[in-house]
Each structure stands twice: as structure tokens, then as C-alpha cells.
Amino acid sequence: TEWNVSVWGKRRAFTEHVEKLAELVSAKTNGEFTMNVSYGGLSKNRENLDGISIGAFEMAQFCAGYHPDKNRVVTVLELPFLGVANLAEEVAVSHAVYAHPAATEEMAQWNARLLMTSPMPQYNIVGTGDPRSTLADFEGMRVRATGGLGKAFASVGSVPTSVTATEAYQAMESGVVDTVAFAQHAHLSYGTINRADWWTENLNPGTVNCPVVVNIDAYESLSDAHRAVLDESVDESIEYYLENYAKLLQRWDDVLAEKGVEKVTISDAELSAFRAQAADPIRAAWIADMEAQGIPGQELFDLVMTTLENTRKGN
Amino acid sequence: MDPISIGLWTTGGMLVLVFIGMRVAFAAGLAGFVGLFWLRWNGFDYDPAKFGKALTISVKIAGQVPHSKIAAQALSLIPTFILIGYLAYYAKLTTALFEAAKRWIAWVPGGLAVSTVFATAGFAAVSGASVATAAVFARIAIPEMLKIGYNKQFAAGVVAAGGTLASLIPPSAILVIYAIIVEQDVGKLLLAGFIPGAFSALVYAGLIIGIAVIFKNVGPPVTGFTWRERFAALPPALPIVAVVVIIIFFVYNPFGDAWGTPTEGGAVGAFIVFLMALYRGMRWAQLKDALLETAKLTVMIFSIIWGVLIYVRFLGFADLPGVFSDWITSLDMAPLLILICILLAYAVLGMFMDAIGMLLLTLPVVYPAVMALNGGEFVTAADSAFGMNGTMCAIWFGILVVKMAEFCLITPPIGLNCFVVAGVRDDLTVQDVFKGVTPFFLADGVTIALLVAFPGIVLWLPSLVG
Amino acid sequence: MASSSSVLQDESWLSRADRALLPVERIFALFSGLAVFSLMFLAAYSVSGRKFFNQPLNGYVDYIEAAMPVIAFMGVSYVQRFGGHIRMDMIIGKMRGRVLWALELLTVTLILVVILALIWGSWAHFDRSFDFAKPLWSRDSSIDIGIPMWPAKLLVPVAFSLLAVRLVLQIIGYGRALVLGLERPVAVPLILTIEEQAMAEAAHLAEQE
Ligand code: NA
Ligand code: NA
């Protein structure tokens, strides 16, 4: 069996679990089951879910925020200020939501089965000019942030401006945006860190959720042995992803020092004001919106919270 | 059958269809669709029971491409650039430019011809299309040159060659297309076209002066303009300066933060030319005409883009570009020599094909090979074959192929600019124009050689942007 | 319209159908031009909002992406009517009579094949983004301000369907020319030599001045 896998951009920390999965599956089946990972050759990133639905390829990665109407359920994971502290917690809450019937059912409409997440750290912002550390500073700030994150910044008077990740550097340089919200690896690989004067270390406004899915027909037509290999390799791949990302985060402080980027710490008072102004109303609106469409919004949000609690207890 | 053979057969079939006159957009779309289907059914071992499934999947993959690829912000530059060009006619910028160039620089030997070259270069700063530039200046500049005793073949050649400057000097539709196909920064590419475009204009001007000095009868200087007359000629041409400044400053502001994205720069430039055209008497009838003409040209270009991208999607599944670049890099030849062969192949191809069609059809396969030749997309300047990193190599190659495509506009047998100039003037045959354009054709050869030998000419400006 | 001279007319039903379709095609193309025009204002508005009022246009990119299909597809049939889509006429330009009509018939039929496939495929693309049961019937939305994608996606099969009708007329036109051995058939774009083409272009520019 040979599977085509559609991801985008270039190979980076964000795609390492997919590469690892391909490697593990091939090794464990002595090359009988291989995956051919294509970086943008098979589909545009926004259309990866469509490609899965068509059967154009067997596995793909996408981000919920690119097209919320395609994947309403998993956008719960993109709500601002969920309080996720690290990648392990991000994996736990994502996989809990992925296992919820509402999520599996919605994805089944795309002929897709949620396989694993691509855990992303909090989208702290880098910015140019004077550091912004109070809510008042955020007013009128032009920020590159998408989805729930964009809404959160909008609620405190910022103007979310979406440019594609590849254009973020140019947008920052040209003053189209003052700040960019990205995970660390993206600040590095898209060069926004080179343009930055400061980085918020504890704003932790939220993150994006980018699942890896497989085509259901392709998954079911795998031999039992191959399917077992695929399933059991997920945890290992995620493990590898986390290790790899941890190394990158270790390097992060050095990069900040080397580029002379100031670490901005936001006071607890400001943070809780931000949360009250952004997180609560956005969450309430999201839940109401979902419930109106027959999606168990409250239940999904509670699931995230209890999973978070349980994960912390477990540690 | 293996995917590579399917890729080759399908590509061959497409080329045959293009050759016998099928519209390029649809020939490429057909090849992509058929290739996708063939690949898929081949994967099903030609099982008749799975024919329908293979067909459905490939139809749906192909059907995704037009919308998904066209709905992109960067592509909006192309119609904007085309619109600027049409609006510029109504803003009467062409005559204004020629008049200003004449009063300021026609005193040099071959003065009117030199003025024509600089006026076409100036018009290039608002026009994205070479053919239109040649047509307009054939009407304005040739009569004036003939009036003071220019050789008519030479006058025609100047205009045909000057027209080609429009595609290098930003705004340029063809550079945007290149940037989209190879997924490089549009702003940097537009910026990179500036100096080679100006450089080509200087080479043309130098050539004209040289010819005028040696052959006295080619064209006398024109003198006698007062300074007052000179300054009076400037204001009508000012919008050009505004557009140039805007586009440059949107992409790269030497004095601080740039103003915005190239997309915005193009659109704001168009807006200024639009206001100018209104001021110069454009009304709804002319505007409607400009909009329809813009729509036609835009649709022609976009149809090729999505058609070719269906074919490219198929290539992605067949991995033909990967195999081709493996082959190119395995050749036992100096990389620079291979690059020169590729450019020569473009020169030959360009004799028979339209520039945009040629680039779109070949780049998906040729571009990855050139990048691989240099050492890959992420190579550093130190480790590379051409002494530049991946991004710079992409820019350099882009300018080279676009210059090649321009070169082909004045080469026989189908140098479109020459036909256009001959078409505008009843007293000129195509042979006359080809004869007159020959020196410029040689000058372009020199320019291309210099751009290959000294990549710095191309890369200096974009390298400032970081 | 300078280029319209390349399509001949008479009183046959085919030529009437050709002329009946033309206004529809022209309106569609004009929409395409107007969409380009609107891009200009959109940018001017967005830039001045950002530069002077610190109030950028929210969803600027989303609006552009929604306008692009109007620009790119609405005029596709209008251009085909005049034979404007780019091709290489080295060989076909040298052909005369039945050989020419046979070649044109072949390529136009192939275009119809690919367009029918694309109508199907682009309809499916639209259909995946459309759901009567959902708010705004949307099952796919833009990245910034979440506008539904389906209207823009629907434009593609609509524009291609108009093109398919045009192609059927051209197939009949070329088929008739082939069977009857016509010299100057109606309702199909007649090839202009490259000189004639340049002449037409020049005449058109002259009109504008
Ligand atoms: Na230009
Ligand atoms: Na040529």
C-alpha cells in the first residue's frame, strides 16, 4: 500500500510527526505500507479536507482556523485563553475532543477520520516599536492573528489583519501589521523574529488546532495488520514531535538574546482583565452559536476543561 | 505503467494539441485531467469496475483547481496592472511622455530615437504589456522620426524594441505570473525587474547614439527647446512618476517603513491613473471599453493559469518535476552551461510561442530543475553553484526568462511586436521592421549575457529588502 | 468592438443563436471588468484607512479572494466567442478549407470535453462548501471574517456552463463548415493573419484616442 499525504510549506517542526509516522509505518511493515509526503504538490492547504473527501489522497493535515465552517466542532480548541500551558496538555485536550462523537461525525461528512493533532504552543506575539504590555496598548494594534485569536484581539480594540504566513514578514516590514501571533517555530521559519523588537512571554492568548486526518475508505481498506501498525505509531510520532519541539523551545531563549528581542511580561491584573474582556464573551457566543446549530458546544467546552484538569492531576 | 511514463505521454499529447492549435489553457487543462485519470486508473490496474471511481476522483481533483488557485490575493495584481495600462491611454500619458522625452533629451545624436526609448521605458512604468506599448508608440513616435529624415526601418525597429521594456520594468503582468508559479515573493521580483529594465533601455540608447554617430544619415539631433518649454512638458507626465514612486515605496521604502503590500501599491497606482484619466476627459463609454478590454486580457491570462495549474496538479501526483530535476543535476556538465542551454531553448521556443503560454507550460518542470542545479531551495550562497542563495536564484532566473520572453517579441518569425508595428504603419512591411530591429536584437543578446555574467545587476535591489 | 469583425453573421438560426448569446457574454465580461475596478477602490480605501485613520479594512484579503473568481471566470465565454484564448497558430494559421474546419472542430470538441468535466468537478467543489442546513448555507468560510465561500465557488460552474453553450454553437458552426465545405462560415471566429490581428489592434487603439 502506498499512501499520498498532503501537507504544505516546507518540512519543519510542525510536520515532523507526519514524517515520523511515515518512517515508522514503513519500517514496521518492511516497506509494504509506505507514505509519500507531499509539501503542497497535491493540494492547496485550504483544500486539504476537500482532497480527503474526494479521495485525492489518503492523509492530510489542515488547520481549523483556515475554514471554521468546514470544521465547527474542533474550533473549540481555538477558543482564546483556554489555559493550556504546554504541548502535552494541548495533545490531551485535542485528542479528547477528536474522540468526541460530535467531532468524529462532523469529520465523517468529509470522509475523514481524525488521526492525531499537531500540537502548537501558545501564539504569543512579536511586535515592532515599543513593547505593548497593557490592554490600553492593544487598542488600535494591527495584529496578524486568525480565528478565535483574532476575535480575542478584536475584543480589546486591536485590528486583526490576516495575511498568509508566508507574507507575515513582508506585512510586518511594511507596517501592514505591528504584531504577529505565531508559534515559536513559525516566528523562526517565517522570519518574523528578525523584524521583532519584543515578544510576549506570558500572554498565552490561545493557539490554532491543526489535525492530521485520514480518508475513512482508505483507512478501512487497510489490512488489519497495517491498520494496527498505523494506529500504534501515532503515540510514538507525537512523542517524537514533542521531543523535537522541546529542543526548539530550548533554543528560543538564545535566539531572543541573539536578536536583541525583549521579553515582555504582562501583569496578572492585565491578563485577567484581558481574559474577562475577551475569553468569556467569545466563549459564550461560541457556545450559543454551536448549540443553535445542534452542536453540543457546552459539552465540548466542558470536555476540554475536565481533560485539562485530569491531565494536570495525572502529572 | 509507471507514473513517469504516464507523465511523459500526457505531456507529449498536450504539446501535440498545442502545436495543432488547441487553445493553450484548455489543452493544458485537458492534459491535467486526462493525466489525473490515467494515473488513478493505472493505480486501480485498469479494473473496469473502478473506471467510474477513477473518473470521479480525477474530475473532482481537476474541478477544484480553478477556484482554489485563482482565489489568491497575489493574483489580483495581474488585472490591476492590466487596468493601469488601459487607463493610461485615457490619461494621455503616452503623448505626454514622448513630448517630455523629446524636449529634454532629443539633442543627443539619434535624439528622437533615444527619446522614444526613454518614453517607452517611462510608459513601461504604467503598462504591464509589451505589445500595447509598441502599438501606441508606433503611432506617436514613428511619424515624428520620419518627419526629420530618419531611416524608416530604423525608426520602426526602435519602437518595436522599446515596447519590450514594459515587461521588465514594473508593473509587469508576466513577472507576477512567474512569481505565482514558482511561489516567490512578488514584491522582490517586481523590484528586481527595475534595474535590468532600465539597463536594457540604457543599452538601447547607447546603441542608438553609437549608430547615429557612425552613420550620419540615421537620425539628426533635435535642438532648440527652451528651458521653459522643457519644464512645461513635465506636469502632464507626472502621474507616471507618482505610479513609480508608489509602487516602489509600497514594496520597499528606503526612508523607513514601506507603505503596504505590492497588491495595494498596484491598486493605488491604478487609482491615481484613473483620476488623471477622469481629469483628461474619460467618461463612462471609454471606461466601459477599458473595463471590457481589461476583462478580456485578464481572462485570457487567468484561463492559461488555471489550465496549466490543473496540469501542474497532475504533475504533482506523477512527480515528473522531481525526476526531471534529478536528471538535470545528474548531467555531467557545468551548471552554468546547463543554464545557458536552458535559456537558448527558451529563445528557440519563444520564436513560436506566446511568452506567457511558454513560461506557464515550461516553468513547472524547468524551475525546480534550475533550483536543484543551484543546490536546492535552501542552499546558502557559499554552497551554491551560481553563488547565490535559493531565493536570489529564483529571482535571477525569473528576470532571465522574462528577458528571454521579451527578446522573442522581436525575433523572427513570430516576433509579435514587429507585426504590431508593421500593422500600425501602412508604409512599413514586417520585413522592414525585422530589418530595423536587428541591432536591438543583438543588443538584447549582449544584455542577457551581461545579466548572466553579472547577477548583481539583477540582485542588488531585491537584496536591499532583506 | 474591433475584434467582432472576425465573427460573420447571417439570418440562419445558428447566427441568431450566436448573437443572442453575445449580450449575455458581454454582461458577464463587464462584471469581470467592474470587479477589477472595485479592487482599485478597495485598496485605496484599505490603505488610506490604515495610513490616516488607523482603521484598516477588516477582511480586505477575504474580499479580494471573493472578487477573484468574478474577474477570472465571468468573461471566459466572451473571450472564446472571438477566439481570443491564446493559442499557437503556426500550423492552423496555414490551413484552409475542410482541413482547417476539421482541426478547429477537433480542438473545440476537446475543449467541450474538458469543460464538461470541469463543470462537474467545480460543481462538486461548490457543493462541498454548501449545506442548506447550516447558517448562511455555508460549509466553508473565509479565514478572516468568515464569509461563506459557496457564492464564489458557484461562479465557476456557472461561467463554464455559459462557455459550454458557446462551444456547442462553435462545434455546430465548424461542423457545418466541414460538411458543406464553406469558405466563410458564420458564428465561429475566423482566423485573422497575424498582420490582420495587429491591424485590428491598432485600429482599436486609434478608436480610443
Ligand atoms: Na511594465
Ligand atoms: Na518570436
What does this protein structure show overall?
The complex is a heterotrimer of chains A (315), B (466) and C (209). Chain A contains 13 helices and eleven strands. Chain A is an alpha/beta fold. In chain A, the strands form two sheets. A six-stranded mixed beta sheet of chain A has the order 7-6-8-5-9-11. Chain A has a five-stranded mixed beta sheet with strand order 2-1-3-10-4, with helices on both faces. In chain A, helix 1 (16-28) packs antiparallel against helix 11, helix 3 crosses helix 13 and helix 6 (147-155) crosses helix 12. The mean pLDDT of chain A is 92. Chain B is an all-alpha fold. Chain C has one domain. Chain C is elongated and about 65 Å long. Classes of the chains: A alpha/beta (315), B mainly alpha (466), C mainly alpha (209). At the A-C interface, helix 2 and strand 7 of A face helix 2 and helix 4 of C. One sodium ion (NA) binds at residues 350-351, 408, 411, 414-415 of chain B. Residues 350-351, 408, 411, 414-415 of chain B line the site of one sodium ion.
Question: What's the quaternary structure here?
Answer: heterotrimer
Low-confidence stretches of chain C: 1-5
| Number of helical segments with 4 or more residues of chain C | 6
How far do the termini of chain B sit from each other?
46 Å
Summarize the structure.
Chain B: It is found in: Cell inner membrane. Chain B: Part of the tripartite ATP-independent periplasmic (TRAP) transport system. Chain A contains 13 helices and eleven strands.
How would the blueprint of this fold be written?
The complex is a heterotrimer of chains A (315), B (466) and C (209).
Chain A: E1 2-7, H1 16-28, E2 34-39, H2 48-54, E3 59-61, H3 87-99, H4 101-108, E4 112-117, E5 125-127, H5 135-138, E6 142-144, H6 147-155, E7 159-160, H7 168-173, E8 179-181, H8 184-189, H9 192-195, E9 198-200, E10 211-215, H10 216-220, H11 224-259, E11 262-264, H12 268-292, H13 297-314
Parallel strand pairs in A: 1-2, 1-3, 6-7, 6-8, 9-11
Antiparallel strand pairs in A: 3-10, 4-10, 5-8, 5-9
Helix pairs in contact in A: 1-11, 3-13, 6-12
Chain B: H1 3-19, H2 24-43, H3 51-70, H4 77-90, H5 93-105, H6 111-124, H7 130-147, H8 152-163, H9 173-182, H10 186-214, H11 227-232, H12 238-251, H13 262-279, H14 284-318, H15 320-330, H16 335-352, H17 355-374, H18 390-407, H19 416-424, H20 430-453, H21 456-465
Helix pairs in contact in B: 1-2, 1-14, 2-3, 2-14, 3-14, 4-9, 4-13, 4-14, 5-6, 6-7, 6-8, 6-10, 7-8, 7-19, 8-19, 8-20, 9-10, 9-17, 9-18, 10-18, 10-20, 10-21, 12-13, 14-17, 15-17, 16-17, 16-18, 17-18, 18-20, 18-21, 19-20
Chain C: H1 13-53, H2 60-73, H3 76-81, H4 97-128, H5 150-180, H6 194-208
Bound molecules: sodium ion (2 copies).
